[in-house]
Fold this sequence. Notes:
By secondary structure, this protein is α/β, with parallel strands linked by helices. It has 2 domains: 3-84 and 226-257 and 290-377, 3-Layer(aba) Sandwich (Rossmann fold), CATH 3.40.50.150; 88-212, no CATH class. The chain is 41% helix and 13% strand. The chain is built from 16 helices and 7 strands. It has helices at 3-6, 28-38, 54-61, 73-83, 88-104, 109-115, 120-124, 127-139, 146-158, 182-191, 201-212, 232-235, 258-261, 263-268, 289-303, 324-338; strands at 44-47, 65-70, 223-226, 243-248, 307-319, 343-351, 369-377. Helix 3 links the parallel strand 1 (44-47) and strand 2. Helix 5 (88-104) packs across helix 9, helix 6 packs across helix 8 and helix 15 (289-303) runs parallel beside helix 16. It starts with a helix and ends with a strand.
Amino acid sequence: MSATSLDQPKPKEHRLHALCPYYAMFPPKFARDNILALTKKGDTVLDPFCGRGTSVFEALLQGRSGIGSDVNPVAVVVSQAKTGPSRLSIIARRLSELEANFESFPAHRFDADTFFLPKFFRYAFHRETLKQLLFLRSYLDWKHKPVDRFITALVLGHLHGESNDSPSYLSNQMSHTIAMKPNYAIAYWTRHNMRPPWKDAFDLLRTKAAYRLEESPPDRMGTVIHSDARKCATRFSGYASKVSAVVTSPPYLDVTRFEEDQWLRLWFLGGPPAPTYGNVSRDDRHTNRDRYFTFLSEVWGGIRPLMRNNSYLVCRIGTRHISPEEMATRLTETVKGVWPKSELMNLSVSGISNRQTSILLPDAAGCVNEYDFTFGIAA
Length: 379
């Protein structure tokens, strides 16, 4: 690599990419480079594990059609909000309407609601901020109204974070990617004498909506569904034999649990006020490698009817325990079991040495290696 190339500025990412940052293991550049290299304008790109919607959104930015699915409601809300955002004027009007409704409620209404929450919430959020969050949790119709979905995604993106370093978060000091476990969090805040800041959620949401939508969204809209990846062919039956490339990142093998890490955001979407395990999905953390690769085989079988002949499967995958040779062998077996004429075109390996959560969660264990595979698919 030349010195000149090192001096080139990094491309400016669209502001909607960071609408709700929870993991940075699948950056926009990775999706963009593969989409540009493997597809042309007008093609369809699929991500069956769409997460933050990075591949789907990047496909739209590059003039492709983007479709995706995810089993986790947080991922679905964020991805749908990014790939089909409302206009800023509509969002501002809706926020003013919600704020007026909130102020019309008796002052004690949400005090009573906080009484039934675990004590974590009184440590995590200022009393007045928590009242606003409880109201928004009750009255945002994110399942049916696009404007409410976008506001909900904004809340999820700013629900918790490094409030000591940034005014952009509603919580006590916390990672902005994952939510700490309640008991650990309370002990941490108590030990460091940290108190939650008073933040007006409505003012913050107005500011962040204006910032995120200052840059025009793509001309076309994507389609993101709440579904198990194995059901993609049924749920996307109108795209049979139309997908030119899959650009995706399955749950990493024995690395992290999305459901556990995102429990506070799941609570805001109507879930219980504590971490859960296996309620959202039994596949977000496999510890048995045989079951893991069986799961991936089932996913590839679930998307097979959607793939065009001479299409591509790009898969970023991670683990702490498998060598590059074993990973290449096992993953290739899952792909060839569904597409016998497929070909492994490229494999690259990179290490992960520093996680954003390490300061607040010093015992958190990340993955050692990430593997990027590109397969040519002969359907």
